[in-house]
C-alpha cells in the first residue's frame, strides 16, 4: 500500500488522500466517498477501466490521461478538460459534459447516450464517430480545425463516408472534407453527386 493524494489543479490543495494499491483505486474511493473533487488534477494518468460512476468533478483536468474503458456514466463533469485524452470504449452515459474541452482527444466506440454536451469543444476527426443523435443537448458545440478555424456544431453533424478517402462532414455553417473546408462553389456539385449516389444505392437494393 502506498500513500496517494488527489490535489486541486488550481491551488494544489489536497482534495482526498489515503493508502491504496494504486492511484486509480484512490480516485475510485474518493468518488465512492462523495469527496469534493472540483478541479481535481488528473493529468497524464493511466485510468483505464476506472469506475467514476456518479462522480461529481466539475473542472477536473484529465489532460493526456488514458481513460480507455472507463465508466464515467451519470456523472457531473461540467467544464472538465479532456485535452489529448484517450477515450476509447469510454462510457459517458447520461453525464453532464457541459463546457468540456475535448480538443485533441481520441474517440472510438465512446458512449455519449443521454449526455449534455452544450458548449463542448472538439478538434479531432475521431469525434465524428460519436453518436451525436443520442445526446440530450449540444447547443453551442464547436469544432476547431488544425488551422484554428472554428465551426459551429450545435446539432448532430451529417457525416458521409465512402465518397472520398476522407469523410465529408456537414456542420451548422461549414462543410469539411476531413480537415479541409469545402468552399461554397464546390458545395452544390458535391451535394448533387452525393444525392445521386444515395438514390442509386437505394435503387440497387
Describe the structure.
The protein has 205 residues and is α/β, with parallel strands linked by helices. It has two domains: 2-156, 3 Solenoid (Pectate Lyase C-like); 163-205, no CATH class. 15% of the residues lie in helices and 20% in strands. It is built from two helices and twelve strands. Strands 4-6-7-8 form a four-stranded mixed sheet, with no helix packed on it. Strands 9-10-11-12 form a four-stranded antiparallel sheet, with no helix packed on it. The chain has a two-stranded antiparallel sheet with strand order 1-2. Strand 10 (168-170) and strand 11 form a beta hairpin. The longest helix has 21 residues, at 184-204.
Q: Give, in spatial order, the strands making up the sheet with the most strands.
A: 4-6-7-8
Determine the CATH superfamily of the largest domain: E3 ubiquitin-protein ligase SopA
Just name the CATH architecture of the largest domain: 3 Solenoid
Briefly note the CATH topology name of the largest domain: Pectate Lyase C-like
Strand content: 15-25%
Task: Supply the CATH class of the largest domain.
Answer: Mainly Beta
The pLDDT mean sits at: 91
Structural class: alpha/beta
Radius of gyration: 19 Å
Give the strand tally.
Answer: 12
* Main sheet: strands, sense, barrel: 4 strands, mixed
> What's the overall geometry?
elongated
Helix amount, in percent? 10-25%
Could you give the distance between the termini?
62 Å
Number of domains: 2
Amino acid at each position: 500500500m502506498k500513500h496517494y493524494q488527489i490535489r486541486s489543479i488550481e491551488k494544489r490543495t489536497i482534495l482526498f488522500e489515503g493508502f491504496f494499491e494504486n492511484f486509480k483505486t484512490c480516485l475510485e474511493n474518493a468518488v465512492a466517498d462523495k469527496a469534493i473533487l472540483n478541479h481535481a488534477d488528473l493529468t497524464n494518468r493511466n485510468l483505464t477501466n476506472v469506475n467514476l460512476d456518479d462522480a461529481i468533478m466539475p473542472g477536473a483536468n484529465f489532460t493526456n490521461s488514458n481513460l480507455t474503458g472507463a465508466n464515467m456514466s451519470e456523472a457531473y463533469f461540467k467544464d472538465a478538460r479532456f485535452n489529448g485524452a484517450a477515450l476509447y470504449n469510454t462510457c459517458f452515459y447520461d453525464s453532464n459534459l457541459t463546457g468540456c474541452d475535448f480538443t485533441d482527444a481520441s474517440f472510438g466506440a465512446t458512449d455519449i447516450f443521454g449526455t449534455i454536451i452544450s458548449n463542448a469543444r472538439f478538434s479531432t476527426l475521431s469525434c465524428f464517430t460519436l453518436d451525436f443523435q443520442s445526446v440530450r443537448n449540444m447547443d453551442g458545440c464547436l469544432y476547431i480545425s488544425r488551422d484554428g478555424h472554428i465551426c459551429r456544431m450545435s446539432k448532430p453533424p451529417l457525416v458521409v463516408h465512402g465518397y472520398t478517402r476522407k469523410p465529408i462532414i456537414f456542420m451548422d455553417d461549414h462543410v469539411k472534407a476531413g480537415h479541409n473546408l469545402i468552399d461554397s462553389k464546390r458545395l452544390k456539385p458535391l451535394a448533387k453527386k452525393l444525392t445521386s449516389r444515395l438514390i442509386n444505392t437505394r435503387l440497387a437494393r
